[in-house]
Amino acid sequence: MIYDCVIIGGGLAGLTCGIKCAKEGLHTVIISGGMNSLHFSSGSIDLAGYTEKGAIVKKPFEYIKDLIKSNKEHPYTKIGLSSIKKSIDFFIDELASDNIPLNNNGEYNHFRVTPLGAVKPTYLSQESVYSSKGKEIIKSKGKIAILNFKGFRDYYAEQTAANIKNHPIFQDIEITVGSISLPYYHKTEKNLHEFRSIDISRIFETEKYLPRIAEEIKRAAGDAVAISLPAFIGIKNYKSIRQKLEAMTGKFIYEIPTLPPSILGLRIDHALKDRFFSYGGEYIAGEKIVSGKINKNEVESISTLNEGRLSEIKSKYYVLATGSFFSGGLQSRLEGISETIFDLATNGTNPRNKWYSKNFFDKKSHPFLNFGVVTDKNLNAKTKEGKAIKNLLCAGAIIGGYNPIKEGCGGGVAIASAYKCAELIAKDLKK
Ligand SMILES: Cc1cc2nc3c(=O)[nH]c(=O)nc-3n(C[C@H](O)[C@H](O)[C@H](O)COP(=O)(O)OP(=O)(O)OC[C@H]3O[C@@H](n4cnc5c(N)ncnc54)[C@H](O)[C@@H]3O)c2cc1C
Prior knowledge:
CATH class of the largest domain: Alpha Beta
CATH superfamily of the largest domain: FAD/NAD(P)-binding domain
Number of domains: 2
Bound molecules: flavin-adenine dinucleotide
Shape: globular
CATH topology of the largest domain: FAD/NAD(P)-binding domain
Strand content: 15-25%
CATH architecture of the largest domain: 3-Layer(bba) Sandwich
Distance between the termini: 21 Å
């Protein structure tokens, strides 16, 4: 069988590309070797957070418009402003269809709080992280109670409170810290390793203990108008659980991501998979692509390893969405940086001792975060000989030429490049 499009990697980029391809009517499969970075992320989509000099970007689309004029190699330049905007609208619509509404602040960025209490600019967030009501509460300096659950060790309310108090938007706001007890906790006491965000979110999903939790919240929060909880109030039906808790407590409920696994990210992962399946996409989980054959600048086939034997998969188009070092799309070896399936050209060429900065929190960040596969203007991957591969496009963190952390643009580049790849493939195959 020959697919229209095989997507290698089922992260934010692979899934977004898969949804768009399948929605366009292409016979699409996603093959993914393991977990993706969404399980470790904030669940917010960073579009453009910081300038080259480290200043906070207020209006991301305006900033990207200027970036496109000045940086020819940036993935945003290759994608173009119109496709970037379309991709964000597309993403919002698809997640809304799976009951995960994403909010933005119009043309402006808003702020999200990290698991350790840092405050970062971002563009799209779930409504428990950014909403007009939350914005009003901050503006009116309403009292906030930061709560944790007794026995939960992947989140530190005291540290969050201490850190956010340093941020200008939280100054002059009274912030208290408290803890509440989850009734179910007593049953997990014998095995504390099971008291993780994913276990607790499953308990929330049952909705059985909501009235008791609401009473605990009221007791611990006192007269605070808003409370923040570690983000685990459900995966699939978090929206209605949050509404019920707000009604029961009479308080605004905000969520802060915990240390991994991140439930805010998991919600997006689940919703994207649902959308992909709804358009008839195929998903092969736990299967790694180990090699690919390239002939005359075209991919002929890719292979998985089955009981020691190579098993070939063929497609008209391939999208490489294997992520960066974190997910195994790139590898650092003694001899240099390599792309792990096709051994494509990468921009990770400078001497090994220049890959990183000596100071971990260096303002200039680390050069290796900029490394990735070299692409042409249409996101086609390039071979080490400098030739563009006609039917192999790149999406997401595997693309070189940008720094997702320093620029605060990881989610935006993943979604926009994935959408662009799908647009180009659909246009060509429908000719
Ligand atoms: C820990 C972490 C946290 C982040 N947090 C945020 C955030 O909060 N907001 C934000 O905007 N950006 C964040 N980013 C930036 C991030 O790069 C992007 O947001 C985006 O999630 C990257 O998606 P991706 O699909 O390109 O890659 P990934 O999510 O890394 O997915 C790649 C997938 O490819 C699979 N794969 C790899 N090799 C193979 C193979 N050979 N065969 C088959 N499958 C393979 C992997 O198993 C994985 O599932 C974060 C990045 C990291 C690493």
